[in-house]
Amino acid sequence: QVQLVESGGGLVQAGHSLRLSCAASGRTFSSYAMGWFRQAPGQEREFVARISTSGGRTYYADSAKGRFTISRDNAKSTVYLQMNALNSEDTGVYYCAAQGGGSATYDFWGQGTQVTVSS
């Protein structure tokens, strides 16, 4: 089992930045690829960003490219999402998730942290 706890959400004005953190406990964090997802009110959860186990490879949704940066610190068992130039469409609950090697899906999810961007 892997427990994931997100933090860093809040209310921010458009154009400003936030940094989300996701702290993991349980099994070896470095063996899991990590992802960030978000869910806006009334919409389905969508992919935001992903990082490989070593941090050497990252992937972003088109909406996040150039504005968001995913990173990880395996020594601290933490993954981050730096979000810049936020706009109202970034509002939602942000979740981190862990994907084990060989798994086709994300196996563990956090409870989420609310991000609200005011215009």
Overall spatial form? globular
| Biggest sheet architecture | 7 strands, mixed
Q: Count every helix, treating DSSP H or I runs of 4 or more residues as helices.
A: 0
Mean pLDDT: 96
Report the strand count.
11
Determine Rg (CA atoms, Å): 13 Å
> In sequence order, what are the helices and strands, one letter per element?
EEEEEEEEEEE
Low-confidence stretches: none
Distance between the termini: 40 Å
What structural category characterises the helix and strand content?
A: mainly beta
Helix content: under 10%
Residues in β-strands, percent: over 45%
Write the layout of secondary structure elements.
Blueprint: E1 2-7, E2 10-13, E3 18-26, E4 32-39, E5 46-51, E6 58-60, E7 68-73, E8 78-83, E9 92-100, E10 108-109, E11 113-118
